[in-house]
Design goal:
The complex is a heterodimer of chains A (263) and B (124). Chain A is α/β, with parallel strands linked by helices. Chain A has nine helices and nine strands. Chain A has a single domain, classed as P-loop containing nucleotide triphosphate hydrolases (Rossmann fold), CATH 3.40.50.300. Helices cover 36% and strands 23% of the residues of chain A. Chain B has one domain: Arc Repressor Mutant, subunit A. The chains are: A alpha/beta (263), B alpha+beta (124). Bound molecules: adenosine-5'-triphosphate (ATP) and magnesium ion.
């Protein structure tokens, strides 16, 4: 029997992760500024509310709720109406208070989540947690407690995280946070022959198999559009003449470090 | 009666008395006005004076005493959370509605002019 899934509503991505995230899991979306992390997260919330009867929460550490209403409206998602319908709560908060609140029984966030029957949450972005402590061990502990708090509340979470690297560079799946989360998806700008594309890779999906392809995506007026496999097969001008377009794409995505490793 | 007092009297006359009372006794500074607007826009936010100062772009030393007064006046809830003093918009429905009415009324320039006048008066 197929396991229950929490679809993101982004067809190409759902296809890569066998229908969606697993329920009550923490799913990390990492990427450079402007790659569409918040958009992906909002789409997940929108899909939950309108197609799955799953109300949602947005926890934001920097933007005002109004900013999300505006950004969502840009894609035709009426978050203001969802708030009015008690199907969405957008909460601006600080990591310190959020953390303390989740540690107590029936804290404010839990009470809000219960009051609308929330099933999904977008945390935008986890990068702000790093402000709480300079000690990596303590940070890991804090993040772990935070994620467990969300799971205890029965929420399926998307957590975004900024990554300063615009292009290339090895995705560091050995890193602490990757162990704590249940899935890890990376968004990247990829430059091939002077043109910049966006591409996505699912690095980890705990408890099930997943598509290891690097897929190109675009941000359209309807949100993220993850294309089916990257389909260039034509050899391109590169240091490696035998490289297919797809290989060149992969090399550009992963950067020269990985390139060296795979040689 | 001086002209000035006439003007003041006319301002009293045509303002909703509940809003007038709110401005004269509780939202009686521009910083409080700003804070009340912030909490109206963020009805689910619970946070420290430090964070709220950051969100509203002000110095915490300015903001904190005003938060405390708003809490004493029943506009905000103030509580202790793991050693942090945190503030939230009151859960009292009547006060929330009054605040919402105030913010909505502020969309009107005429109202703002009057409200500003009253705040300045109460500052003196
Ligand atoms: N209607 C639209 N059609 C196409 N692209 C859009 C549309 N609306 C926004 N975008 C693009 O989406 C991107 C912003 O996405 P988003 O804010 O989700 O990124 P982000 O990864 O969260 O960025 P940050 O790190 O700054 O938070 C921008 O590049 C913007 O140009
Ligand atoms: Mg963002």
């Amino acid at each position: 029997m197929a396991m229950e899934r929490v679809p993101t509503g982004i067809a190409g991505l759902d296809e890569m992760i066998q229908g969606g995230f697993l329920p009550k899991t923490a799913n990390l979306i990492e990427g450079a500024p402007g790659t569409g992390k918040s958009t992906l997260g909002m789409q997940f919330i929108q899909h939950g509310i309108t197609s799955c009867d799953e109300p949602g929460l947005i926890l934001t550490f920097e933007e005002f709720p109004q900013q999300y209403y505006r950004d969502a409206a840009n894609f035709g998602w009426d978050f203001k109406q969802h708030e009015a319908d008690n199907r969405l709560r957008t909460i601006m908060t600080s990591p310190e208070v959020t953390h303390a609140d989740l540690q107590r029984i029936s804290g404010r966030i839990e009470t809000l989540a219960d009051s609308i029957g929330a099933k999904r949450i977008l945390v935008d972005s986890l990068s702000h947690f790093e402000r709480m402590t300079a000690d990596p061990v303590e940070l890991r502990q804090l993040t772990f407690q935070f994620i467990n708090g969300l799971k205890r509340m029965g929420l399926t979470a998307i957590l975004t995280r900024e990554n300063a690297a615009l292009l290339g560079e090895t995705p560091d799946s050995e890193e602490d946070l990757a162990f704590v989360v249940d899935s890890y998806t990376m968004l990247r700008y990829v430059e091939i022959q002077g043109a910049v594309h966006k591409a996505l890779l699912v690095l980890k999906l705990r408890g099930s198999n997943h598509d290891k392809d690097i897929r190109q995506y675009a941000i359209t007026k309807n949100g993220l559009d993850v294309r089916s496999r990257f389909e260039g097969t034509r050899g391109i001008m590169s240091g490696t003449p035998t490289m297919t377009h797809a290989q060149a794409f992969a090399a550009a995505f992963l950067g020269s470090n990985v390139d060296a490793k795979t040689k | 009666m001086t002209g000035k007092e006439d003007f003041a009297a006319s301002l009293m006359d045509d303002m909703d008395p509940r809003l007038l009372e709110l401005i004269q006794t509780r939202v009686n500074s521009f910083i409080k006005w700003d804070l009340v607007r912030f909490f109206h826009d963020n009805p689910h936010t619970t946070d420290t004076a430090d964070s709220i100062a950051r969100y509203t772009g002000r110095d915490v030393r300015t903001v904190e005493p005003e938060l405390v007064q708003l809490a004493q006046d029943g506009v905000l809830d103030m509580e202790d959370l793991s050693g942090m003093r945190v503030y939230t918009l009151t859960q009292e429905q009547a006060v929330r509605e009054l605040v919402a009415n105030f913010i909505q009324a502020c969309d009107d320039r005429q109202f703002r002019v009057k409200a500003i006048y009253h705040v300045i008066r109460s500052l003196r």
